[in-house]
Amino acid sequence: GKGNKERLVPLGSYSKKYILIYKEEIRVLKNIKPADKDVLFLNRNGGKITRAMIFTIIKDAVRSAGISKTVSPHTFRHSFATHLLENGADLRTIQLMMGHESITTTEIYTHLDNQHLKKVMHQFHPRNK
């Protein structure tokens, strides 16, 4: 990741299944560069995928899907953190998954709209039961 930080993100069985298929059936066909032997996702030349390549892949997918909004890798990070928080994950866990040194950096990702705040208030406040 950015800053050469290692991030650990738990994967569900669906993701694990397809990563295993990729590793056993697709990745093995690539001419992997020795320096990149531990890299999971490789480019067509067997080297590590760069940040610029990821941005290009996302840009092409967004265009193909007919989406007019600007979408970047950061958009996915922001959505990831927001969805985790909105579904009950605690900030510390999100901080670890995002690779943030400071919890205040994580809080920036966690803007919640008023509708979600109202929903939580009505769902969990003792006077609403």
What's the topology here?
Elements: H1 13-26, H2 51-64, H3 73-86, H4 91-98, H5 103-109, H6 114-124
Helix pairs in contact: 4-5
* Estimated radius of gyration: 19 Å
Count of discrete structural domains: 2
The tally of strands reads 0
Q: Residue ranges: pLDDT <50 for 5 or more in a row?
A: none
Share of helix, binned = 40-55%
How can the largest sheet be summarized? none
Query: Structural class of the helix and strand makeup?
Result: mainly alpha
Count of discrete alpha- or pi-helical segments spanning 4 or more residues:
6
Mean pLDDT: 86
User: Which H/E pattern describes the elements?
Assistant: HHHHHH
Taking the alpha carbons of the first and last residues, their distance comes to 44 Å
Silhouette: elongated
Strand % is: under 5%
Structural summary, described in words:
- There is one protein chain.
- The protein is mainly α and 129 residues long.
- The chain has two domains: 2-49, no CATH class; 73-128.
- Helices cover 53% and strands 0% of the residues.
- The protein has six helices and no strands.
- It has helices at residues 13-26, 51-64, 73-86, 91-98, 103-109, 114-124.
- Helix 4 packs across helix 5.
- The model has no long low-confidence stretch (mean pLDDT 86).
